[in-house]
Fold each of these.
Amino acid sequence: MAASLFAALRGIDTIQVGPVGTLPFASGLLDFIGVHPVRTGRWHPNPWEAIAQLRQDESDHPYAVMTTREMRTAWKQMLAFLTDSGLPYVAHPERNMRMINPVGTVKLTYAVPRSMMAADEALRRRPPCLLVDFAGLKGFSARQIAARLKLHWPALRTTRLPIPALEGELQPERLARFLERRDHCRELAKAIKSRLAGAQAVGLPAVVGLHRAGPHFDLIQRRLGVPLFEIPTLLPSVPGRRLLDTFSRQLPRLGVRTWYQYAVKQAQIRADGALHFRIGSAADGFWVQSRAAILATGRFLGRGLHAERTAIRENLFDLPVHQPDKRGQWHHKDLLHPDGHAINRAGLMVDARFRPVDKDGAPRHPRLFAAGSILAHQDWVRQKCGSGLAITSAYAAVAACAQIPRGLEGTHAP
Amino acid sequence: MAPPLSFIQQREPAGDGPLKTTVLIIGGGVTGTGLARDLALRGIESVVVEKRDVNAGASGANHGLLHSGARYVASDPAAAAECRRESLRLKQLAPHCIEDTGGLFVAVAGDDENYIADFPGLCARCGIKAQPLDGREAREMEPCLSERLIAAYRVADAAIDPFRLALDNMAHAVQLGGRLLRFNAVVGFNLAHQRIRSVVLRDDITGRSQEIEAEVVVNAAGAWAGEVAALAGARIPLLYSKGSLLVTGTRIAQRVINRLRHPSDGDILVPGGTVSILGTTSERSASPDAIYPEIQEVDRIIDQGTAMVPMLATTRYIRAYCGVRPLVSCGEACDDRSVSRGFALIDHGQADDNPLDNFLTITGGKLTTYRLMAEKTADRVCQRLGRGDACRTQSEPLPDTVAGRWTEPGLAPRTWMERGNPGDLLLCECEMIPQAVVDDLVRTLARQGGAASLKAIGLRSRIGKGPCQGTFCSQRVAAYLYDRGVWQDDRGIDELRAFLRERWRGQAPLLWDISLAQAELLEATHCGLFGLELDPVDPGG
Ligand SMILES: Cc1cc2nc3c(=O)[nH]c(=O)nc-3n(C[C@H](O)[C@H](O)[C@H](O)COP(=O)(O)OP(=O)(O)OC[C@H]3O[C@@H](n4cnc5c(N)ncnc54)[C@H](O)[C@@H]3O)c2cc1C
Ligand SMILES: Cc1cc2nc3c(=O)[nH]c(=O)nc-3n(C[C@H](O)[C@H](O)[C@H](O)COP(=O)(O)OP(=O)(O)OC[C@H]3O[C@@H](n4cnc5c(N)ncnc54)[C@H](O)[C@@H]3O)c2cc1C
């Protein structure tokens, strides 16, 4: 998604192929970098300091391959795009923000939806605060969150609200749709307000509206008269859905041809060096030739990589994958081992222009680039850098791509 | 009719003075719980002490095969005959714990022809029925079988649920006045005049120590029997053989399928409700603790199993686990008359050095023969006590209790659908386990004197055993337990960690293809978002 955006912003004729990946799973938090070094588990309040140290310690890390300026521009363009598209995001340029999780832990992240922003302030000041949850929303318990946070935040209270109109189980998306009606928001605000009892901030699960979230959130906050913040939920995640909707609505307006219903079934580098892709749905397909391509196909969940019992492969071009020698080295015996699992650092090795390279360091193809979590030498899960890596490496790959002569010669043949 | 839950009651060790009982049983596996029931039926009071939870040892980490005996006809005919008798008996007395699937023995091209030729005669010698089948018949019965079959026999194997078995044995014992102390490890013995005067326990949850006095002490600690005996100065020469097993995502065959050859790795596929279990291996281990299913074992099991059932090469595996078999090299204290080579009943009163008149050890054996082991041990206990009725477990059916119910695959979903209460949310969507089942388990655990940990709930239900590998149900159950006031403070974090770590042991060796993608989602959620691998301190503070 990020690569398509950056390409469109540069006026590159772009096709984006592929079904929605892990975006609906995303929490809505855009991490840049939270932890370094992984082994010590040290959180960094200032991401730029962490990046500087990371570049020294891990010279192979994708963050060490791009410039600070590229990173700053990438973030600026991404946040401006989201905000202009009606999904306002906020970030403090020089520091990570604190966010609450459904298990009651606190995490540092870089950019958050405006609807989550007040959590950062609340966590710092710890005023009397009311955490709200909803009967029927599984895996989200205000009591659980408060039980842990109370150790540092005694003025935390909880309340559970029934939603009588919705019987039985409340999927987050169902609740979010329900809260897209102004009268429902007003009722919710009234119910919360009657339980405020002096609370100076209110937190609730991230379910206030799906498509037009902003105005509804504002309405509730206005009626409460105190800062309101959303807390990420278990999957399926509404903030992830909002991101997905925003991209899929806005990218076509910027000229990107989005083919989400298709996947690339086969990729070839022909003798003349042209890149050819067979694009298809389940049954039929057609070939597209492109001048350049960016592989942002993700890892195992996204299906960019595939693991057999003995080895890991890249799915489309069978590119060389940096990986441990044996399956026995993929994972630690302890899920939570402080070093992180070696397999998470497996992936595509790239050159300074984000082109996948062979073992000897030569790019496989002059106009084939890679970005996102498929890259080797990073552990986004442990370093807390998932979205940041995707956004900044997409920007860097597009920038490199833009340096080659323009034009995308698409030839469709049924 | 199932006895009500209140039969599973618990008396905590009192604060002052040692606890007293007639027989103290160390180990809450199928042997210890079976012995408690056997004694209770003879009118003898007992207490079972278990350092972790019921079936924490081999009884919770085996293949679940109720042996017809055919597997042992060549290597151990006495054990084979024992299995034949006991499996028949259990099918009659504990049918709710057993799925009487029947079994096949099959050989494929390349397997030892002599063994195949001898097999029917050996079975006949042990009184075991083995009906010959041709390859086509066998494949009609089990279409998953290889086309390269060269011999097939039909036998009376079956699948048994060891959790239900142990929990029902314990529940019945408690109903008759017995007691269970979970999370209480034996850490020492006080000896006097060639007897155990008292046994020292340490409560794993409170850390408190407690003494307990008994007329007779039975060490039923399975692979830990050597360690326990050593605390009393008694020596049992034990070797440890680790076996690993793999659980498939779906049920592959209706019957038990054995490879017709000398027992070896990866040659049995046992159905277990909605899944199948493939195993096993036999690897010497230096200790009964800190064991893992290793990647090379997993690969060997799959490669071997594939020869019988080709789809085992590509099927999805959802979990691996392992257990330890104690191998006893019997010394002179071993009672050869009353026990077969399958298990060892050791009377420490007959030991040459350090004899202890009121101390017995029962170890080795099989799940299939647990009842017989309990019977022989109880006979010896009664002899020592000079009282007690005759054994009744040979004819008295095992009652079906609630305590064991939720481990049965498919039972929770059925019950949920029958109850049809939309407010009863499904906490585990893979295995369809609703809130009401968790409530039930919390109550049962409270009556057994324990706190409701995620691990204990997982042991008693199918939570965390489905394809999501615990990613979602762990947090859903955690949130629910907070909502119900069962948990307070920041206990949830440690609970989630412990539960996910435990599940991970069984996932890590099987992570390729879809399972790896699932594991990525697990780690993304619990580490990427929740940061469970990090010290949960306020990161800005
Ligand atoms: C549970 C979870 C929680 C997360 N939480 C956070 C968080 O708190 N903060 C944060 O910053 N990040 C978080 N992330 C990470 C983030 O959402 C992204 O997953 C990550 O940045 C990787 O993005 P990616 O675009 O490289 O890969 P993916 O998101 O995996 O995208 C790969 C895309 O390629 C497509 N594709 C693959 N093969 C083909 C093909 N042959 N043809 C066409 N298309 C193909 C896939 O369909 C998919 O759309 C989380 C992720 C998960 C799963
Ligand atoms: C891999 C494998 C596969 C098998 N498959 C089959 C099969 O298919 N069919 C079959 O019939 N048999 C099978 N068996 C054998 C069967 O599982 C065992 O014979 C049986 O479970 C033994 O039960 P037990 O109660 O004697 O020992 P265990 O179940 O090991 O119980 C011993 C208990 O003692 C406890 N304990 C240890 N130390 C202490 C202490 N200090 N204080 C208090 N408690 C303590 C332990 O926590 C444990 O719960 C298999 C065994 C293995 C290892």
Note: The first strand of chain A starts at residue 15 and ends at 17.
Amino acid sequence: MGVPVKENLELQSRKGLRVSDILVTVLVSLVFGIVYHFWGSVYSLLKPFQADELLYGMWFAAATLAFLLIRKPGVAIIAELAAAHVEVLFGSGWGLTLLMYGLIQGLGAELVFAAFRYRNYSVWVAAAAGAVAALGSMVLDFYYSYTDDLESWLFIAKYGMRILSGAVIAGLLMVLLAKALERTGVTALLRPASSKDYEALDDPRHG
Amino acid sequence: MSFWGPVRHTWLHRTNPVVKLGVICLLFFMTVLTHDLDVIIYQAMIFTVCLLLLSGIQPWKMLLFLIPFMMAFLASASSMMLFGKGDTIWWQWGLFKISEESFYRGLHLGFKGIAFAAEGLLLVTTTQSVDLFYALMQKLKLRPKYAYSFMASIRLLPMVWEEFLIRRQALKVRGVQPARGPRRLVVRAGLYVVPLLAQSIRRAHRVAAAMEAKQFDGDRSQARTYYYPSQYSRYDVLTVGLLAAAVCCAYAGASYYPWFGIGDVRFN
């Protein structure tokens, strides 16, 4: 009985992302994307004062939440691309710009999860992923808006707030949200059966 | 959608989405790497003209797009003008400081924003999402499971909106007080977020199971056929030529009739 169980586990890990993983990631991110869309217009009014930076972590939230739910490689990038894709759907001129930001932010978060071999789902890792996603957006900012030519005090304040916000909103807040979703039981649909589940089947008490 | 629908089909509509995506991405990189104020002004102007001509949308409707353009201009220009690095100071008040360099850099960013928006809209206003994904699958070998998941999720979105309305009614029936004040607003948002996400996940999972059963993932099929075949045509060549000509015009305009002639706007 032990052999088919092992084979089954290996088969699952080799298959990578399944349609269900991708569709859940994309749909959750699209919901985020729509929130971004309506909130973005209010938010751009704050822009000249840099106050928007404190909420910036929201833009990386889709990546960490999707990873915390699905726990597989690649979902962070897909999540960010899907959230940015909403703007393309709405026919916004920023669609392509946001797709590039989404790609690099998702990549940033993905790298952190990969560094822990996709096995660590703690607050600290999620916070680090949010912070690195913020760094990714900073690098693009240098090209898009020359923010490295801002006065130093503003530069430090701007990106300090952004990284902090990435860690708190995309990290802490999303871990709490993922926990709340776990309590509803939906995550059981998404996680592949672990070896522990198969061992439970092998329990002699079940005959 | 019908309001923004094109009244006529231009070359750009007939171009293969993959070609369009490639060309527009190249234009994007060009604009990202442009640091000369004159070049960027010409780029912004020429691509706006291209957009008015090629989007196929009535020009007066297109003018409505000017509103976000102006907002973007102000947002990206103002903070750089007020807080940018520079040596030749024109005006200073507390932390605000406008210098010659930061002023021109702010102006540059404003026009850069317009150029990005015009390029992005060239793609977005002339391409249907479904066509783009079908072209990506056929021409760039994007795995069908990604393309179909994206397309399916677009159709699932109205259901998420329905769930939102149901949740709102449910809360009303249960006598939950309407939100007043910022703290109540946060609590209220919490009442929506978890149920909506949980329902979306359940629904997406059910749809995905059905899609897998119907082989939408394409893991096992070798040769796939597509309902919408995606082909290259002569319009691809025309579009590439036209946009290349637009780029040449921008650079020629900047070198023969420069407005400012100050070169690179970056500090140092």
Note: The mean pLDDT of chain A is 82.
Amino acid sequence: MRGYPVLIRTLSGPAHRALTHRTGPTPRRSFSTSPRARKDYFQDLENQFKAFRDKATAAMPGSDWSPIQLNPGLPPERADIVIVGGGVIGWSVAYWLKKKERVRDGVRVLLVEKDPSYSQASTVLSAGGIRQQFSLKENILLSLASADFMKNINEHLGVVNEDPVDLQFNHSGYLFLANENVAHIMEENYVTQRDLGAKVALLSPTQLKERFPWINTDDVALASYGLENEGWFDPWTLLNAFRRKALSMGVYQCFGEVTGFTCSTQTAETTDGEMLNVKRIKYINVRMPNSLEYQPVECAVVINAAGAGSGKIAEMVGIGKGPEHSVASVPLPVEPRKRYVYVVHCPDGPGLECPFLIDYSGVYFRREGLGGNYIAGKSPEEAEEPDVSDLEVDHEFFQEKVWPLLCHRVPSFERLKVSSAWAGFYDYNTFDQNAIVGVHPLVNNMFHATGFSGHGLQQSPAVGRAVAELVLDGDFKTIDLSAFDLRRLIYQEPVLENNIV
Amino acid sequence: MEPLLSLYSLQCQLRRQCSAVACITVARRTYTPSHPTPPSFFNRVLFTLNKHFYEVEHLINWSSWLKNKVIRRKNVFYGYTQKKFGVNVAASYYILGLGGSFRFADQPEWFRPDSRGKFSYDFLNTPNSTIEEIDLSRTLINHVGLENIMSQTRLRHLRLQACPEVDDWFLARLHLFGETMEELDLSQCSRITVGGLAALQHLRKLRRLNISSLPRLKNPGLIRILLEEMLPHCEIIGVDYEQGLLQAEPPTETFTEDSVHAGSLGASRRL
């Protein structure tokens, strides 16, 4: 008797109706729920949980903790900073954001990654080199800072009770070869690099031949050799080190795809009298893998570190979709470009001293391991860019374009055999092939860190720190990257790298 | 009540101040490439508490930060000494302070600290003598502290036996001694790998290189061959050609022609 009114209050519609229906014709009452009522209760369990969760939210309005998770893969409903893209740049930004927060759990950082297997991610398909031989001051400083980070990587990214980080860094340096036409560019760059602290040496053809007897120095006028802080390492280890450390510091990770944004718009007037619509992102929609279910995450800041897919993310938020000849019509000029990497085996090729050699014709190769294997490739011409719908490798490209140049430069490569090959995407900046770091003036809470065009991995620790400074401190504090701001895209002033390839 | 409250407020302050330090967690275990020993009971308890309590996390961070501080203090840049006494005196003072010994180019005797770490200041009398041989075995020198010795460009012999902080980045910085370095001893340095040995190609005058007992080298024999190709005039000591090679199976009791033939084929395929 006592149980019956309680049951009426807590059960929802169908169970209640079942009970009243049963007690209608027979005057006998039972103290326990009958099997039919229990069955309806369990069929309705999901609604019960939802009702319980709504009550819990109503009781604790400030927190988004709930004891029952309907779908554990969903991201939290609210986050302060959402990072789109789980490559090395995304995780580097996540790590530095957590490192720079002054209060424990000061910012809630959520990182959204589309593909948990990283099968098409540019980071893991990269050749993994780091060099300071650039012509732009910012690029040199970024690489130097990243090399300094990697020197003490266990101090930065070591986690208690986990294995120390071993990047397998090969300190063999980069060797650039120039012919007479471009030797003057190499000399100017050498002066810039030396001034900023990069340890580079210029070699004449005779010195080159003495140091590396296996090079054919016929048309080489000058060579530039990196002595310190240059070489190659394992990108997967760096990515996992950043990821492990960031997760240990409390970054939320979610596997899902960003499908849209909800923004609020305000109009602003420029000095010319033009009316602009300035957007502010309020919600970012994250869709679960293989499902239509999505979660709108309320956020304050979004960081676009999606690599080759950054152009699409920018399009989703409306960058580039505006009336012609206005600020809003300039899209984010980042698109994927496919690059091939071929693994070759040559029994009598260069030995342990083989650097990362880049020829003025664009062909490059480096040693891989100790068994006479090398990694070679070449950037294709603009007109011959391969199709980017998949990651299939074109072996004809190696036969026609890469092998002849390799043999010309290193005669012993005539006897090589291709063991395997893979392809990866560059997040290619079609405007000036340099990084895009900053805020678009029309979407003022979305920070971009993309467009690295092949240099993202080597600049990732320093770029992560720069973006974290931009978000948390408001301005660059250690390295000034204002040259990479998005305003240059709107003013159409490219910042070009004046290198020999 | 009063002391407890002050302790609690101190804790809160420390919690807030140390949030920056708390993020620097360091695994200061020596690298063990195979068979990691399971952590002791005390360590397991400590790590379980570390997951649940901020105070334990701070204590663990402080202990690793203190260990780092010792190494950092040993490798500080002797800029003041260099400015006041000259680069040679600064380098000598640094080496003796670390616990190493050296010999000037124009004198036959070695300057060493005694067993208690005390040394004589006679090197002040010869500020213009450059150092020719340095023995930094079992000291805490790392790639930062190498800056103090960079000025000694006429260095010929460098001994770094069992130095725990010498790693590949240290070897990459040795290119400055490329014209003069003749002997280098890297035995028992637990952090050196092949990537660092590849950087030794800048030492064109190297005559003797000791790479015995480097635990992180997977194929010492192969690396010896590659180093000998890279540095043709250099003698590599401490490694046999057979080290790192997979051994063939010993032949079985019953000797039939087929089994012997198959065994030798298998061995040649594996090698």
Note: Residues 343 and 443 of chain A are 43 Å apart (CA to CA).
Amino acid sequence: MNKKKALTIKALGDSAIMIKLGEGIDPLIHQQVKNLSFLLNEQPFDGFIESVPAYNNLTVYYSPYKVHQSKIGFSVTGTPIEKVIDYMNTLAENISEIPVAGGNLVHIPVLYGGEYGPDLKIVADTHGLSIEEVIAIHTEPEYLVYMIGFAPGFPFLGGLDERIATPRKITPRTAIAPGSVGIAGKQTGVYPLETPGGWQIIGRTPIDLFLPDMSPPSLLQAGDKIKFCPITSEEYEQQKKVNK
Amino acid sequence: MTLNVLNPGLLTTMQDNGRFGSQKYGIIVSGAMDSYSMRIANLLVGNDENEAVLEITLFGTTLQFEEDTLISITGGDLQTTIDGISVPTWRPMIIKKGSILTFGFAIEGCRAYLALAGGIHVPSAIGSKSTYIVAGIGGFKGRPLQQGDRIPLGKPTATNERIFQQTVQFGGISNWAVPYHSLVSLDSTQTIRIIKGTEYDHFDNDSKEALVREAYVVTPQSNRMGSRLEGPSLSLTEKLELLSEGVTFGTVQIPPNGKPIILMADRQTTGGYPKIAQVITADLGSLSQLKPNAKLYFQLVTHTKAEEELLAKEQLINEIRTGIQQKTK
């Protein structure tokens, strides 16, 4: 594995770096991102603040002042970014040796269609499928959570079947209800909060993705897998009551 | 101890140094836009420098105090008065029980910071007291202040008490102030220093030149999420397919219309637009003090220079902290 060759580091301003582990959307590259993130959080350097995994890179936020002040933990002297890059390069040498950082399989119940999934028919009609076929295709895969971003708890998922990939709406809705499950091009996802958006909304989940009173405050994290499960409106209401 | 909000003004929110550690869950950082002014405000009253303060935007906030309270006001000059009498800023002072503190219109800068001795007695949400408006958490009930709000203040510490007593000796207003000009600029037109962004090399030469030669104007559509600029449009040499990835405070991104957006304190955690530049941390406070319609020029510096400026400002804050300790012994 030529992982050293693939490790390119860019400065994101004076207080963060972006470490790239490959190109494009690829579960194997993402596993390395996840592993590096895991390793860094297990063995943080002096001045490390936090890291954010994305599809093929990891952004590492730090305090240059604390890195500058640190007397231990860095094997080189130099500017703060030089110290951090050296630390990360050394850490990255161990990526493949650590056990694969795990990911949970999370089941997301979804009430498809009707009032909560107003665009389900549009998706079906676009592809000449029946509503049942769209639901079957959407609930078939285990989707990998590549990253959380855009809104608290919002998962960027890979693995949508091309047969139901559908362009965004030409005019975005001004408000999409929390829990809405949508499709935008080759992406599918769940809205944790009410936001404006142009996704085709095919259903709604009664469970919360953003958990402000919990630690971590998100149901999902990068590296998890999710599977959508169709539920009836009775089951939806039942689950809603449980949440309260 | 309670602070009564008689008039919330345009936008008054509670902010500390920000909500770190949960960006990987999509939780935005928030925090004071001009964190240098916020930190000094806290130090002036003897608080931890990262305690929550009130960030007052442009104009209009009126507050009444139920007890004698040690306060300080830093950041932009919003023509502050106590019971109608103009008061100085960047120093400890005591506002008397029943007195009314009023912020007028910003004559210099855009945002003022009000620190209260003992801090603000609200619970932390996901590790911070900063207001996260979209998620409705943090700050006071997860939202900007409203008329009639009663803000609970924290219990003063021994340090708060000592500065209080010393300020009493000065008749309620300290005769010394922090010289802030090397920390934050309140000028109406500013030169903001940048380093190259992660996609700088993908922009065409005309755009790279225009970025550092022409003036940009902060549009009224700017807010705590982003400063939207008007000025020359910037373009890539060829279309770039970018995936969403991490961004940070001061990231200068270019959406398809070519007009730069600088990401600010309430930015989303990730973004997918090309990043032409990055405002250096040392200039974020000054940038945050630019009012709508203010002009700015970008100046390109090296990464090493950006680090030096950041370290120099931290050194300056250390000196200010030591100075305040000596003044209030």
Note: The longest strand of chain B covers residues 69-77.
